[in-house]
Amino acid sequence: MGAAVIDGKAFAAKVRGRVADHVARLKAETGITPGLAVVLVGEDPASEVYVRNKGKQTLEAGMASFEHKLDATTSEADLLALIARLNADPAVHGILVQLPLPGHLDSDLVINAIDPAKDVDGFHISNVGLLGTGQKAMVPCTPLGCLMLLRDLHGSLSGMEAVVIGRSNIVGKPMAQLLLGDSCTVTIAHSRTRDLPAVVRRADIVIAAVGRPEMVKGDWLKPGATVIDVGINRTRVESGKDRLVGDCDYASCAEVAGAITPVPGGVGPMTIACLLANTLTACCRANGQPEPEGLTV
Ligand SMILES: NC(=O)C1=CN([C@@H]2O[C@H](COP(=O)(O)OP(=O)(O)OC[C@H]3O[C@@H](n4cnc5c(N)ncnc54)[C@H](OP(=O)(O)O)[C@@H]3O)[C@@H](O)[C@H]2O)C=CC1
Ligand SMILES: Nc1nc(=O)c2c([nH]1)NC[C@@H]1CN(c3ccc(C(=O)N[C@@H](CCC(=O)O)C(=O)O)cc3)C=[N+]21
């Protein structure tokens, strides 16, 4: 167990504290309260936990929280009508539609209906394009949280070998863009990658965003590598209670890595902290107010 444990929970609390300070100042100086709307369609138990945590932490940061829980059978037209209302609502500065959506809803269509200025997830095609071309964008929360942890640990990432396992639009691809933006040499691995252990062994930085419990093993790692475990997998243990595990086999990875994020308490809390930071940033941009410093790329 040689690796330093990266305390995402503590780092996220610091980020939320900075958000709360800036929100308090904004309110005192302008009377404006940043507002976040979260839309949940259907009843996914895991999503409900996140939605509840988001709502609670939004209020704790001094922001307004608007929760919209829609029936699993909600039509696309009704969901689009809600998004149009939220787009037009001046009290709402950030809109998050919890993914995945039920199968009858076209998530690309729904996400691209969000006003890009309110797209605090950074999933709208125009934010994706801005990020990919190095322009000011709304940056996806999970990759942003991972980048903050890496910059805090290493200072400059320039020239480091980074391997991102996973190529989803919500984690893998934007993570690779951010690492490229910080001048890493980036490899994106996925389910068709040949000899994944050999690819991972090159990496100074490993980002695991696969959705397969404990897949990455310690003997895949270059000794001293930094491991960022994005995976959130619920596994049933004998007691009948759920246990959360990441995409990395923590015990074997911690023996070889230089630093590693735990699950829970690693990337997850950073995702929510960055969501609050993005909501504040969106609010400041919408109102011509100075943005908080150091809370986006
Ligand atoms: N901590 C947090 O805040 C968050 C955590 N998560 C968690 O992160 C994980 C990934 O999420 P997400 O990106 O949405 O997942 P997706 O299922 O959308 O993407 C998974 C990716 O992993 C790749 N993959 C699957 N199996 C393998 C394999 N055997 N070897 C190599 N690559 C493989 C897939 O490849 P291919 O494209 O070829 O199919 C795909 O690109 C999940 O556990 C999720 O719960 C997600 C969001 C936020
Ligand atoms: N539009 C959209 N944006 C998202 O950002 C988004 C999404 N949809 N769908 C689902 C995934 C998953 N996700 C997490 C957020 C917080 C924790 C988190 O706080 N995790 C805690 C533990 C939470 C627990 O105990 O369940 C931790 O890792 O310590 C985890 C996962 C955001 N996602």
TrEMBL record:
Gene3D superfamilies hit by this protein: Leucine Dehydrogenase, chain A, domain 1, NAD(P)-binding Rossmann-like Domain
Keywords, alphabetical: Amino-acid biosynthesis, Histidine biosynthesis, Hydrolase, Methionine biosynthesis, Multifunctional enzyme, NADP, One-carbon metabolism, Oxidoreductase, Purine biosynthesis
InterPro entries in the record: Aminoacid_DH-like_N_sf (IPR046346), NAD(P)-bd_dom_sf (IPR036291), THF_DH/CycHdrlase (IPR000672), THF_DH/CycHdrlase_cat_dom (IPR020630), THF_DH/CycHdrlase_CS (IPR020867), THF_DH/CycHdrlase_NAD-bd_dom (IPR020631)
Catalyzed chemical reaction(s): (6R)-5,10-methylene-5,6,7,8-tetrahydrofolate + NADP(+) = (6R)-5,10-methenyltetrahydrofolate + NADPH; (6R)-5,10-methenyltetrahydrofolate + H2O = (6R)-10-formyltetrahydrofolate + H(+)
SUPFAM superfamilies: Aminoacid dehydrogenase-like, N-terminal domain, NAD(P)-binding Rossmann-fold domains
Claim: Hydrolase is one of the keywords in the record: yes
HAMAP family attached to this UniProt entry: THF_DHG_CYH
Subunit structure: Homodimer.
Name of this chain's protein: Bifunctional protein FolD
